[in-house]
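We include the pair:
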Amino acid sequence: MTLEKNELIRKIGRVDIQDFTDYMKTLPYRNDPYKSSFSRKTLPIGLELAGDYKYPDAVEAYRDARIETFLDRILPRWEIVLALHYDAGGGVRPHRDAAGYGTIAISVSSTDFTFRIGSEVHQCKAGEIYLFRTKVLHSVDQLEQERFALVAWTANWSKIKVPF
């Protein structure tokens, strides 16, 4: 799956929002280690990138058959996933994803939200699946309500320390 040369984000599908939200509420989130977000908890799935921002270690993360099956249909060869739980008032500061993350990711959310990428502002809708460029400055505006989201990437193996 890819984006056109000048394209920053594209809607690529949709999920049943009630099923998605109900399932996301059951996951065992932990405190978020990332500095770019606020009022958020995370659950790495598949691989977790840890340590150095520019040359991280890859470590085995939580496994979830239902999420992994869903992602296999949407983003073949996914390797890194973050399940996210935002409190009302949470969001993500402008950032570019770290070196070990691939250049394109998919995202799906339980609520509508404002996504800023490059100079563009997008009003993203609950349940819509979006493909976006991760190395372009992007952010999520402060949220008015609780939000659950999944973000998945392929790995940039040239920038990751492989433990095996």
The longest strand covers residues 80-95.
